[in-house]
Amino acid sequence: MRSGIERLFNPTSIAIVGASRDPSKIGHKILKNIIDYGFRGKIYPVNPKAEEILGFKCYPSLASIPDDIDVAILAIPATLTPSALEEAGRKGVKFAVVIASGFREVGNFELENMLVKIARKYDMRILGPNIFGYVYTPSKLNATFGPTNVLQGNVAFLTQSGALGIALMGYSIAESIGVSAVVSLGNKCDLDDVDMLEFFGDDENTGVILIYIEGLNRGRAFMDALMRVSLRKPVIVIKAGRTEIGRKAAASHTGSLAGSPVIWEKALKQAGAIQINDVETAFDVAKAFAWSPHPQGDRLLIITNGGGAGVQATDTLAEKGIELKPPPHEYVTNLKALLPPFASLANPVDLTGQASEELYHHALREALQHPGIDAILVLYCQTAVTEPTVLAEKILLTLRETEVKKPLAVGMVGGGETRKAISFLTSNKVPAYPTPERAANAIAYLLIYAKIRENLARKLSII
Ligand code: COA
User: Fold this and answer.
1) What is the 18 CA–ligand 1 centroid distance (Å)?
2) Is the pLDDT of residue 365 over 90?
3) Kindly report the CA angle at 277 between 273 and 278, in degrees rounded to 5?
4) What ligand 1 atom has the least distance to the C-alpha of 22?
5) Are residues 73 and 95 in contact, defined by beta-carbon separation less than 8 angstroms?
């Protein structure tokens, strides 16, 4: 499945129309981000009032650039956009990225239709309008007015909402989540979720796709693409406008018709998507997918030093339809000798409040190596016996010294030192969370997705 938009993400030349001299303006910020993030292709600022911006020669118009242009970012007001688009078309520009607001979302359908008409005339594709731009880290391209220091990784984040998208770029940095791409879709007058799903479904730099959607232009095509892509990689969907009042808000935000929540839920489920309603959980789960191998089975083991944390995690898992099985007999026998008599060796395995880092090390190493265990949830309640940061180092060491890779999530509950331990783990690509429920939820979705994939494979081979 080829989307035909590879060049948008791997351009050899970019023009920024409206590259302002004023550092506070959007056109300036986009140019600066493109330069600072290290884009290796050619960069052409366009502004008739400037000779040079940020050390780059400035051109008075697209036509005056002595080179072919793959992508033109249009960062000028909506009313000036059609004439700039005409010029881009005449120049043979392949993709126009229209940043301006002031189109369909405010009832200005005519102006937006004009863009589509011009683009069709020249066989040019449009991303936007009403967007903050896009990032593709393998090309070292950050053409947004969001944060500069986006981390490289394998999550493609596609968003219909602009401001929320920018904020979540910052959130992903704070959570150490690396991205392959961030794409602002806005009003989707041309390129839409279907084009993006097809591109990122095939993209070898992308392992997980996270989409924030308010409404779709091509519902059927989207569900078809979603099903094909979900077979290969997890697609997490945050569907906004799930209530009557939320649907009205979506309509005035990006001009989208949000549709009936029941139909959406059913269709997304059938297509194999992982529908998550809140942003925090969506990123928690994306993190787990980004850093974990696919589970080989559904036998999940919980290792904890607190019974309560274990019970909370067990409830969260049960609510997601995941049942814990007793740990393998040899695993229990092996551990028994090291534990006090009051320790519980069911699942969750309770190492008790007096558990040391060494005991965690042993329990985790054996679980990683045991073929009867497919996934592991390590829980820790802060005690004076075990330093959170020391335990975090021990967990990382155990993972590194054990050859076997299994899905794993860590939940650490406690104070400031616990937060430091979580940051340490996430900066080393170990999915770690501040509550047992969030950790359990994240690992639950890895197991759920394994089932989804199995069902899709069965369904698609029947068709
Ligand atoms: N070609 C090249 N440059 C042009 C131009 C043209 N045809 N017309 C104007 N310019 C220059 C201007 O002179 C200015 O440069 P200067 O500051 O050095 O003088 C620059 O382009 C920007 O034009 P300006 O009129 O100052 O626009 P602006 O920066 O105030 O606003 C937008 C432009 C697109 C940012 C604004 O109209 C907008 O839509 N903002 C909302 C964006 C948004 O929220 N998107 C949704 C995602 S969250």
Assistant:
1) 5
2) yes
3) 125
4) 17
5) no
- Among residues 79, 86, 82, 76, the alpha carbon closest in space to that of 48 is found at 76
Distance 20 CA to ligand 1 centre (A): 7
Q: What percent of the chain has pLDDT over 90?
A: 85
Q: Name the DSSP letter for residue 242.
A: -
User: Rounded to an integer, what distance in angstroms lies between the CA atom of residue 259 and that of residue 265?
Assistant: 10
Nearest protein CA to atom 16 of ligand 1, as residue = 20
Closest by Cα among 363, 373, 358 to 304? 363
Indicate which atom in ligand 1 lies nearest the CA of residue 77: 37
Q: Are 453 and 230 in contact (CB under 8 A)?
A: yes
Supply the residue whose CA is at minimum distance from atom 27 of ligand 1.
Answer: 76
Structure confidence by residue, pLDDT tens digits, 86-128: 999 999 999 999 999 999 999 999 999 999 999 999 999 999 9
Distance, CA 104 to ligand 1 centroid (Å)? 18
Cα Rg for the chain, rounded, in angstroms? Answer: 25
**Residues with beta carbon inside 6 Å of ligand 1?**
17-18, 20-22, 25-27, 46-50, 75-78, 80, 84, 99-102, 130-132, 162-163
**187 close to 139: Cβ distance less than 8 angstroms:** no
Q: Are 316 and 428 in contact (CB under 8 A)?
A: no
Using most ligand atoms within 8 A of CB, pick from 20, 49, 212 the residue to mutate for ligand 1: 20
For the chain, what is the mean pLDDT? 94
Neighbours of 246 (CB within 10 A): 15
For β-strands 235-239 and 274-275, DSSP reports them as parallel
Which ligand 1 atom lies nearest to the CA of residue 83? 7
Query: Which atom of ligand 1 is closest in space to residue 46's alpha carbon?
Result: 2
* Helix (H) and strand (E) counts in the chain: 16, 19
Ligand 1: centre distance to CA 75 (Å): 5
Question: Binning pLDDT at 50, 70 and 90, where does residue 339 land?
Answer: confident
CB atoms within 10 A of CB 163: 12
* Residue minimizing CA distance to atom 37 of ligand 1: 77
Confidence band, pLDDT 50/70/90 cuts, at residue 1: very low
Q: Is the pLDDT of residue 255 over 80?
A: no
405-446 tens-digit pLDDT: 999 999 999 999 999 999 999 999 999 999 999 999 999 999
The span from the CA of 354 to the CA of 305, in Å, is 7
